[in-house]
Amino acid sequence: MKVDGKHFRSIWRERDGWSVGAIDQRRLPHEFVIAKLTSCEDAAVAIRDMLVRGAPLIGATAAYGMALAMRADASDAGLRRAYDTLVVARPTAINLKWALDEMRAALAPIDPAERAEAAYVRADEIVEQDVEINRGIAANGLALIEAIVARKTPGETVNVLTHCNAGWLATVDWGTATAPIYLAHERGIKIHVWVDETRPRNQGASLTAWELGHHGVPHTVIPDNTGGHLMQHGMVDLAIVGTDRVAANGDVCNKIGTYLKALAAHDNGVPFYVALPSPTIDFAVDDGIRDIPIEQRSGVEVTDMTGRTADGRLETVRIVPEGSPVANYAFDVTPARLVTGLITERGVLKPDRASLAAAFPERIAAAAE
């Protein structure tokens, strides 16, 4: 995707061939800063502290983290240590464990002397696979948007509501929820995005709005509690969100507040789609509401906000009274019954066990191992 006309990915190998560059998403939208990762520990910190975030990008970062670890210590002990360091960096996004399992499976059988080179090759493959998957999501989601265009008066705008950031910043490129939006924009379809601010970390206001704006896609930032009103008044044609994990039964775990949007969409007859790459499906989890662990993050994300002052300074201020306790659940689970369809690289699927299993039998096999 583009930043002021120049193509960027969210993560890449640097010109030295071994270190890793990544956009520091903690600094957006006010500063565009490139971070350099040179060790497995750097990758773990980047994931844990949300320098990188979004399930697919977390997986890609973990893969490069394993490669950096093998460059430092390619022994069996080094392989185990790298896996154990990275797998606990964040608990909810299943892509993290998926990528680490892929890396371990590729590296464990070979001689330690060959592991560093093989690790970079496999990590690069995981990165390129993510890009291709998201291109597939773009094409399959575009068909949904084109169907809406066909029902509208010629020249009328298609309005999409999204939540959190499931854009190219959450993946390697294209994004998941935004992939069909970007493709529609490139095809000349008049499209407009309602961008939920997405408290408490404001990934919509800070990240989705930033990337849409730099790519030239019309959009409007809204408070999180505005979506239901827009749907009631016919101002949303469809909702597309991303996900950090989809259970075998089609339940969807995504950024906190997604469930409320799904309820509003259901009540107002607005199609509610979830865009996801296949590594996000977790066939080891039968029931998302019961079995997916929900990360609880620091209360500071709720009590404090950072922004740019009128004179250009970045300042952090407290917005909650001293002494008031806060709860900060990072995700919620939307039941499959509220999901219109799952937009994947292999088509738009019904959110149920049979459809997921038929489309991705290899993921079932991986879960059984």
Structure description:
The protein has 369 residues and is an alpha/beta fold. Helix content is 42%, strand content 18%. It has 2 domains: 2-128, translation initiation factor eif-2b, domain 1 (Four Helix Bundle (Hemerythrin (Met), subunit A), Up-down Bundle), CATH 1.20.120.420; 137-368, 3-Layer(aba) Sandwich (Rossmann fold), CATH 3.40.50. It has helices at 40-48, 55-72, 76-87, 94-107, 112-151, 179-186, 203-215, 227-232, 258-268, 288-291, 300-303, 353-359, 361-368, and strands at residues 2-3, 6-7, 11-13, 20-23, 34-37, 158-162, 191-196, 219-222, 238-241, 245-247, 252-255, 272-275, 281-282, 304-308, 314-318, 331-334, 341-344, 347-349. The chain has a 7-stranded mixed beta sheet with strand order 8-7-6-9-12-17-18, sandwiched between helices. The protein has a 4-stranded mixed beta sheet with strand order 13-10-11-16. Strands 3-4-5 form a 3-stranded antiparallel beta sheet, covered by helices on one side. The relative contact order is 0.12.
How do the strands and helices of this protein lay out in sequence?
Elements: E1 2-3, E2 6-7, E3 11-13, E4 20-23, E5 34-37, H1 40-48, H2 55-72, H3 76-87, H4 94-107, H5 112-151, E6 158-162, H6 179-186, E7 191-196, H7 203-215, E8 219-222, H8 227-232, E9 238-241, E10 245-247, E11 252-255, H9 258-268, E12 272-275, E13 281-282, H10 288-291, H11 300-303, E14 304-308, E15 314-318, E16 331-334, E17 341-344, E18 347-349, H12 353-359, H13 361-368
Parallel strand pairs: 6-7, 6-9, 7-8, 9-12, 10-13, 12-17
Antiparallel strand pairs: 1-2, 3-4, 4-5, 10-11, 11-16, 14-15, 17-18
